[in-house]
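Researcher: Here's the sequence for the chain we discussed earlier.
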Amino acid sequence: MERVIVLAGGMSYEREVSLSSGRRVADALKSAGFQVEIREADSGLLPLLAEDPPDLVFPVLHGAEGEDGSIREVLDLLGIPYVGARPDACRLAWDKPTAKAIVRAAGLETPESVTLPKEVFHDLGASAVLDAIVAKLGMPLFVKPTRGGSALGASLVKEASDLPAAMVGCFSYGDVALIERFITGTEVAVGVVEVDGVPTALPAVEIIPMGERYDYTARYTAGQTEFVTPARLTTEAAERARDAALTAHRALGLRHLSRTDLIVTPDGTPYLLEVNVAPGMTETSLLPLALQAAHLTIPQLLPAIP
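Model: Thanks. This is the structure I predict for it:
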């Protein structure tokens, strides 16, 4: 394997994050001697791939374009190998309620939740629907779009009076909202990578935002969040978090790499929040921190990819 195309950019709200991730991946591969090109997923991509196919494509696209399986579907059509999950697995992980149902069936805990499209609030009356949600789930709540990442459109709601505004913010980034019971505990991310074809859980990264929560600014502004690797968990809790990430990776049919976001409660129970098939690779992203703690690098992973 010599020539790698890194796909970055796209037209989602996370375009700048993707470009930053792409540059870091490209630099890491170049330093290991690979021939690397960074390309956009635009009208020029397919002619390029057909005329001069690379040995491998590394998609670092975020949002629908990079995580709903569509780009990988096209790469499969062309017979070009790529890093990451197959299209069907991407679709399962990309839709948070679907992923929650699958991992719950696999025995994992995930916050109790309600999933509702914007039309329901319009047709049935927002006030009545929100009152029913609060009666069912209690407070506080966490509201986020069912699809998307980087905490865009996501809100922690402590008072019922703040819920309408949170819904408006959520619907600015998607037409379907996931409203979860807020779980308190230690927020961690556990990466899974395949070494010699065997899924391996990386050390958990503990997330400690300087503000109240781990929002977009906290994720991508240096100094806004403290990261501790390995996370300050008991030995048993750390093992349960790693097992949860591996279970989610396998249950969703993922491959090569993934990142599972969890809340570990004081009694050591990991609650799965979501699974990411295209983890960020920026200087403040979680998977690179976990790789570093495990003494692994991005180039070391590529030869294991068929």
